Amino acid sequence: MGFIFFIPLFCLLFSPSSAEIAAKPGVNYGQLGNNLPPPSKSVEIIQSLKAGRVKIYDANPKILQALKNTNIQVSIMVPNEKITAIAANQSLADDWVNSNVVPFYPATKIRYLLVGNEILSQPDNVTWFNLVPAMRRIRQSVVRFKLRKIKVGTPLAIDCLEASFPPSSGKFRSGVSESVLKPLLQFIDRTKSFFFIDVYTYFAWISDPINIKLDYALLEPNTSTYTDPVTGLLYTNLLEQMLDALYFAMKRAGHPNTRLFIAETGWPNGGDYDQIGGNIRNSAVYNRNVIKRFTEKPPRGTPLHPTVVLPSFIFALYNENQKTGAGTERNFGLVYPNGTNIYEIDLSGETSEFKKSLPEPTNNEPYKGKIWCVAARGVNKTALGGALTYACGQGNGTCDPIQPGGKCSKPDSLYWHASFAFSSYWAQFRKSGGSCYFNGLAVQTIQNPSFGSCKFPSITL
To answer: pLDDT confidence of 124, banded at 50, 70, 90?
Structure first.
């Protein structure tokens, strides 16, 4: 991904129905943590953030019960793994809606029923082609149970595009444009729903931080600008540029006035040593700027659609310690799991000045030095032993030095052997996708764990 060169990333008026949509920025309530507060406390936190909406990634009955009578609009989700079966069976769709929606509606203000999550980013292409049929089934169930205020949609990632720079070149991926996206757009327009999109300027910026200016990605005012050479449209931030690429793609697909809903956007508040830009200051600046943009009155859309309302969800409510992947994945929260705010934020947009100063970032440029991957302290020993076996089983002499008689065989400690194996594995396989994570059993360090004649492999940035 480059200056939206590689991100598979107009003044037309929308139908009058778009004016009925309030901005009301919301928050994504992910649950991939083993230390998160119960739903009742989480709803109190959501209310304290002044969120107008909340999106969950399932239909957790405890959460839906806790949201009763709160006046918070709620989006729930049909799991990815149920899509193919529901696409072929109306009774399964009816059963799912009857079990997961009907008992809570309307006391819980369910407004959006999302079928799957980022389906086109998944390798299972069978599910791709069952997505819209499943949405039709769920829509029929919504009508059958007279759930009149509920819209059906599906959130996609920005990789649904194969061209996005300049924005006027926006085009859907050729493999799914005709078979999935055009039927999806037809469904959305016919049912007056939304194209739900997950869009992160952070991932675009880290792919090319030299050509994409940080302040442009953070939506900071009066910094960089970009003019589309085809349309002459002027862009003052990266988010609008990415959204207009999507609008142009929809226009090419014959649906120029389909309404957008920002299903996820945000910026990480932390990350690993080999990542840049994930820090509290950048996260606060980005999210505050997004909220300010999305709550302006009168509404200010994008250069192509300047007056549309863009309803949105900020990702995410909590830092989630069980999310896999790079460290940033576990650090997108507005709130720590103990319930305290990571920084001041007001999702209503009513607060324009915040009292507490933000910490100065230390990682807006790449870390220059060596990094090691070691076992985390206090983790399950059985799991750690399994991860050690996995790392050593990848070959290339990964664990030769910790074998009996090797330079790193002593001390004969599970922690030290696993730490050496993790560092050795990461040093060898990082460029081909290996990570320093091991299901949460490993952490990065800039403190050299080597001792005596035992030299731990490292990566150098």
So the answer is: confident
Candidate list 162, 240, 264, 320, residue with the active-site label: 264
Q: What is the pLDDT of residues 64-77, one digit of tens each?
A: 999 999 999 999 99
What is the mean predicted confidence (pLDDT) over 397-412?
A: 93
pLDDT in tens, 223-257: 899 999 999 999 999 999 999 999 999 999 999 99
Query: Which among 20, 118, 344, 353 is annotated as catalytic?
Result: 118
Q: What's the one-letter identity of residue 295?
A: T
Secondary structure percentages of the chain, helix, strand, coil, to 5: 35, 15, 50
240: annotated active-site residue: no
Q: Is the dihedral of CA 376, 378, 379, 380 positive or negative?
A: positive
Element (H, E) at 421: helix 414-429
Distances (CA, A) of 68 to 40, 51, 61: 10, 15, 11
What is the helix (H) or strand (E) element at residue 374, kind and residue range?
strand 370-375
The CA distance from 278 to 284, in Å, is: 11
- The beta strands (E) that lie in 30-79 are given as 53-56, 73-78
Residue 19, phi then psi, degrees to nearest 5: -70, -15
Q: Which of 374, 380, 366, 422 is nearest to 398 (CA)?
A: 422
Q: Which of 6-15, 109-118, 343-352 has the lowest mean pLDDT?
A: 6-15
- Nearest-angstrom CA–CA distance, 112 and 206: 32
Distance CA 406, CA 425 (A): 17
